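Support reply, case 0932

Customer input (verbatim):
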Amino acid sequence: MQTSKAGAKRVPRQFSETCKRKELDIAVALPPRLVQRNMAFLQRHGLGVEVMLYDTNWVCNWPKEKVADLGKSLRDLDVKVSAHGPVHDLNPGSLDVVIREYTQHCFFKTLSVCQAVGAKYLVLHLGINPLLPDSALDKWLTDSLLTWRPIVGLAEQLGITILLENMFLPSPKFLVALKEGLASERVKFCFDIGHFQVYTGIPLEEWLDRLGRDIVELHLNDNSGADDEHLALGAGMIDFSAAFSQLASRNILPRFVLEMTSKKFVRSLSYLTANDLLSPFRRR
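Our regenerated output:
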């Protein structure tokens, strides 16, 4: 059940000033073509940006000069940058070696984009079929590690942290197994609360206890519980008050990323402030 206050239609000035002082680490997700267009919004509210690199064709043929210019603009405005890599039909642990190699190629290209745009974090999915039986975990992990290790090696060289996200996952075990297998300080977690709401029956407490303070980023959006709808905060049924309380009690201090269409940003930011959800996460 969601918290009660829907929030105002404007982002309170006090919230924006707090973000500008870097006391809160809040970002919004935008595709590359919309980042430049929203620069004034980011600057006005002291927000970071997560560049959504879903399009593999764009990633594999990215416009180097435009991306370099975008990275310079973001640095000039002191905007903190992360990125979300491509997702659709990629599978680092596929039984098909051609798919694994193509996935690896796309992830290498994505890391190049991250370096050019100044992203310090890159969110990537595991690509695992959650319907596989437990007996398939060892084979999946072996094949997946072969794909991931060179990617993590490059990320370490570039100073970029890879964040493994809980897409379609019914439990934390796949995330934990992969991270332990990679054994790198440059591998952490992105926890998507919308995915948790839709795809798992395991209590939030167990997820947070297993992933712990390796949760570096939290994807925020709302849904009705039946589908990953990416609604504005407060428009669905997620109990954000309970979730944030559990994060704070474990001293998990993630970067918060609003992952939804841009027209929902103001409502979601005002929802967070109207319900006073972010106070425990201020960095003083």
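We compared this against your earlier run and they match. Two observations from our side: The mean pLDDT is 95. The beta strands are 26-30, 48-52, 81-84, 121-125, 161-165, 187-192, 215-220, 255-258. Please reopen the case if you see a mismatch on your end.
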